[in-house]
Every structure is written in C-alpha cells, then in structure tokens.
C-alpha cells in the first residue's frame, strides 16, 4: 500500500513539486543460501538505484524467544530519497509480530499510517501489528518530514536502517521466511521515492529466512551437596498452621549471586513457584489457598538462568487454616464472578504443541479493585505463564517488582489481582506443557474511577440566532468574470470564502480541493490535502463545496502518495 506525507506549508511562497507516479517491473527469484531464503525483485531501473533488504539478529531462534528483523535501505549512489513504502510477507504459522520500532536517526522521520490520535503506533496492540498477525502481511511507510514541528526535511542521501521489526518464535520448528511484496507496475507494494523522479526507484528487494528450533534437552548430573545439605529450610516448619500468605526462610548456599527457586505444592499439584536471589520470600499475590489443606514447600539452587533442572531440598509442610475474622473481603464495588480456584491437571498422554488459551479477561476499561484475571483452558493438563505489566512502573520479571506479575508454571485458569485506579495494564498469557510454549494471548486494561456524571442539558438556541442562507441571492456571484480574476494567476487572499455547493468544482479532480473559482491549485488546497493525510477513504467527510482528496481512485483504501502524485503534478497551476 502506498502512503504519503502529512505536511503543512507555513510560508506563502513555498511550492512543493514532488512527482510520484510509480511504475515497477519486477522479476522474483528465490535463492537458497546458508539456510536463508531470499526474494530478489530485479527491475528495469538504473544500476545505481537504491535497494531494500532484511537482516536478522540471529539466523535461528528457539521456541518462545525473540528475533529482531531490520529493514535496511542501501543508497550507494546518494540518490535523494524522500519516501518509501514497505510491504512484507512473513510466516505467521511460525512467527508472531510483537512490535515495530521506527529508526529516526535518518531524515525519513514521519511513519504512516497514523491512528486516530494522528501518531504512528507500532505497539503489540496496535491495528498495524494485529492486522499483520492476522494476514501475514505487514504494511507501513515513511517520508522525509518532521511531524513534531511541521517541516519538510532534506532528502536522505546515505544508506540507513528504516525500522526494526520484533518477532517471537512460535512452537513450530522449521524455516520461517520473510519477503517483500514487490510486483511490477504496482503502486500498492514496496516502493522507494526519489526526488524529481516520476517512477519507482527501487532496484531490488531482498528477503531473509530464520530457522525455528526446539529448546535443547539438558541433562544434569546430581550433585550431592545440592540435593541434601544446601539449602536447608528454616520457616515455616512442619505441621505449622498459617492464616495468611507466609514468609519462607532458608539458609544461604556458597557462591556468588546464587539463585534459588521456591516451589509450593499440594499433593502432585504445583501451587506457586518463584526464582529469586534472596534467602527469604513473602508471597504478596493472591493465592487460591484451600482451607484445612496441607502444603509442601521446597527450595533448590538454580543451575542456570532459567532454573531448569537442579535438586530441591527435603520438603517441609504447613496447613492453611484461616480464622473467620481474617477472611479478606474485597473493597471494590465490582465483585469478581466466583471462579473455581484450581483446575485439576490431567496428564497428557503424548507431548504435542499446545494452543494458546482463549477469552482472556478482563478487557477494555474497568473499575478498580480486586478481580480475577481469567482465561479458557487450552488443553487438559496445560499450565500457564501469566504476565501483568503495570505501565506506571515499567516491566520487570524474575523477579517481578512493584505491581508487575511474572509467574512460573501456573496450574489455574485464573489469578486474582488488585487493579489500581488510573493505571493501565498489559496482560498476556502463554500455555505450556512438555516443553512447548504457545503463542501469547494478550489484552490491555485501563482502570477508571467509577464516577456519577451529571447529565448536562444543553441550553436551547433560538432558531433565529442562525440566519438561513438562501442559495438564490448567491447564485449571481458564481459567474466567472475573467477581468476580475485573471486566468492562470494565483491571487493569495487573506480570507477564503467557501464556494457554494451549487457551483461545479472546476479542476477538482486535478487538486482544486476548495473548488476556488479561479481553479488554481494552491496552498489552500494543500492544507485540505494535508488534513486528509494517511486517513481511510471511508472515514472522510468531504464538506459541500469541496472536492474529495481521493484523486487517484485506485484500489488503495487510504489517501496516499498515489493521490499526492496527482496533486503535486498540478500544484501551482490555474486550469
């Protein structure tokens, strides 16, 4: 898809003649080299025209891990680049796009399309990213324009990295290829716009491939000191009754930056797990304790950063036995729907990739207080990795700090959390079983204070306050008098009078958007075109007496550089 720049001229004498009429001729060749799949589109272009390519932070990535893909434009001949469109296909069965980071160290500083707030949003929850994950095609663009101060920037003449794309590997091994949409004579694919060049200046487009692999199986040799003497559990001791979340204490083991894993179970079911470097830990999250139930707890020294493997200490036990007066009562006016606190784990007979959970709740805007974060079970026996990021205090994990949550393998399909008024939270969940980790399911929640807003009744305005305009007296002013407004002369005026709707819009299809009587395509028309920049055609509401900025009438559903090409060719001309 072709996008165009949103620019505003603040000086009366600035005319911008940027011609964009994209004409492509493409030949697609697939090259297999060093496990990298490349799509190369050769065009009938100059040998020194710019090229576009993809580079990866790693040639292989394990399930659940991240890989960054950079979009690089090579401009060895110092061509004057003023804009680019990017259309990339990726294997959505193996990769999920989690975000787009624009690189603004070059002159193409304004990225499109823009959202309702008139900004480019490349976050995981943006429409650009969610649409790409749905279709397997990512589309965006950039132009040489500074949106923060409304200035047109000089063309980019050096090679540069346009943006970085962030992907997470799904649990499906094999090659995942990324390639450009670069089709001959198409204006809705990947293009490079060079100043004063009327055709697409992209010479070639080269994709890339990464390989997804399963995490390696690690075999650990038992260490007697870890399995018996260290650490030793101190508190709570055996057969102790507790009435709230306890504090667990154990002895320190020799070493530097030793990491410990605390695990709480009941029978064969895991209740809670956390990895920390301290020798004590107090549970602050809401745990679905069951009254009069015996729980066991163990601590092990982590043999690696992920705490996989190792040997736990001998277990100690305690009983959860709260008194009625200590039963916590949520203060929130919105009482969470009771959800069974535990889900019985049914052993999976064979190890297969697990699907993501569904129906993650809550969503949208909610009231503050205690409520359950819940989701539907993916498969019997699955466990879940829950992450809650309070945007107000940044994101931390292993261990989570502040109001963030970063659980280990969580057996339940719900988690009680205290949502704070005025805060915004990103929530995401993976399913996991037998070493497989599913793609994420995520949501963003905003917490608003429940307020009673009084209904304001607008003061009636007497009908006579607004005079009714009668078209008949205005009609004589619609006659064009050559002696009053000379042909082919741009006459700047301090105040522009809207053209009556009954007058035909001369040269409207060429860019006379305000339908001025002199049919001149000038800065007034450019201001109307600028306001429509990057917007969906269906969202435009063209007032009576103006012409639609959708000048190209092509298959694109956005006011883009195709429309701008028509406008710029006629800018400064009086028909």
From TrEMBL:
Region annotated Disordered, chain positions: 451-486
GO-annotated molecular function: carbohydrate binding
UniProt feature, compositional bias: Low complexity: 466-486
Classification via InterPro entries: CBM2/CBM3_carb-bd_dom_sf (IPR008965)
Organism field: Candidatus Roizmanbacteria bacterium GW2011_GWA1_41_13
Superkingdom of this protein's organism: Bacteria
Entry protein name: Cohesin domain-containing protein
């Amino acid at each position: 898809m072709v996008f165009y720049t949103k620019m505003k001229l603040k000086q009366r004498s600035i005319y911008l003649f940027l011609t964009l009429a994209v004409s492509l001729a493409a030949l697609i060749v697939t090259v297999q080299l060093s496990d990298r799949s490349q799509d190369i589109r050769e065009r009938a272009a100059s040998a020194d025209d710019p090229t576009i390519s993809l580079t990866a932070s790693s040639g292989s990535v394990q399930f659940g891990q991240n890989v960054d893909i950079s979009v690089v434009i090579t401009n060895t001949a110092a061509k004057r680049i003023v804009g680019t469109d990017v259309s990339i296909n990726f294997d959505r069965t193996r990769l999920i796009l989690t975000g787009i980071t624009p690189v603004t160290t070059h002159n193409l500083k304004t990225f499109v399309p823009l959202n309702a707030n008139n900004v480019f949003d490349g976050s995981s929850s943006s429409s650009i990213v969610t649409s790409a994950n749905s279709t397997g095609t990512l589309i965006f663009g950039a132009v040489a324009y500074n949106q923060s101060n409304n200035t047109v920037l000089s063309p980019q003449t050096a090679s540069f990295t346009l943006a970085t794309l962030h992907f997470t590997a799904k649990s499906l091994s094999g090659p995942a290829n990324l390639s450009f949409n670069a089709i001959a004579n198409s204006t809705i694919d990947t293009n490079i716009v060079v100043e004063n060049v009327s055709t697409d200046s992209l010479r070639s487009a080269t994709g890339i491939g990464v390989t997804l692999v399963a995490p390696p199986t690690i075999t650990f040799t038992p260490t007697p000191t870890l399995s018996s003497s260290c650490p030793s559990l101190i508190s709570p001791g055996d057969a102790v009754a507790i009435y709230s979340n306890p504090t667990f204490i154990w002895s320190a083991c020799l070493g530097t930056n030793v990491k410990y894993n605390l695990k709480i179970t009941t029978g064969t079911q895991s209740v809670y797990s956390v990895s920390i470097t301290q020798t004590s830990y107090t549970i602050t999250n809401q745990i679905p304790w069951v009254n009069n139930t015996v729980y066991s707890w163990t601590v092990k020294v982590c043999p690696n950063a992920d705490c996989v493997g190792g040997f736990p200490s001998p277990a100690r036990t305690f009983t959860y036995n709260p008194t009625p007066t200590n039963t916590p009562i949520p203060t929130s006016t919105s009482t969470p729907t009771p959800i069974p606190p535990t889900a019985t784990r049914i052993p999976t007979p064979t190890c297969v990739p697990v699907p993501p959970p569904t129906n993650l709740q809550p969503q949208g805007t909610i009231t503050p207080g205690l409520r359950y974060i819940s989701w539907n079970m993916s498969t019997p026996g699955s466990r879940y990795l829950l992450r809650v990021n309070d945007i107000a205090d940044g994101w931390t994990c292993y261990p989570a700090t502040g109001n963030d949550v970063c659980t280990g393998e969580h057996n339940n399909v719900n988690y009680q959390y205290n949502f704070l008024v005025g805060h915004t939270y990103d929530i995401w969940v993976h399913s996991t079983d037998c070493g497989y980790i599913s793609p994420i399911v995520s949501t963003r929640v905003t917490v608003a204070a429940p307020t009673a807003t009084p209904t304001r009744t607008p003061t009636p305005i007497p009908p006579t306050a607004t005079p009714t305009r009668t078209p008949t007296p205005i009609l004589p002013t619609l006659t064009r008098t050559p002696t009053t407004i000379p042909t082919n002369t741009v006459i700047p005026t301090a105040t522009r009078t809207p053209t009556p709707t009954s007058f035909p819009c001369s040269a409207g299809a060429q860019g006379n958007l305000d339908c001025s009587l002199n049919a001149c395509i000038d800065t007034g028309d450019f201001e109307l075109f600028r306001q429509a920049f990057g917007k969906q055609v269906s969202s435009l509401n063209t007032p009576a007496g103006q012409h639609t900025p959708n000048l190209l009438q092509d298959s694109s559903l956005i006011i883009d550089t195709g429309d701008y090409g028509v406008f710029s060719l006629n800018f400064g001309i009086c028909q």
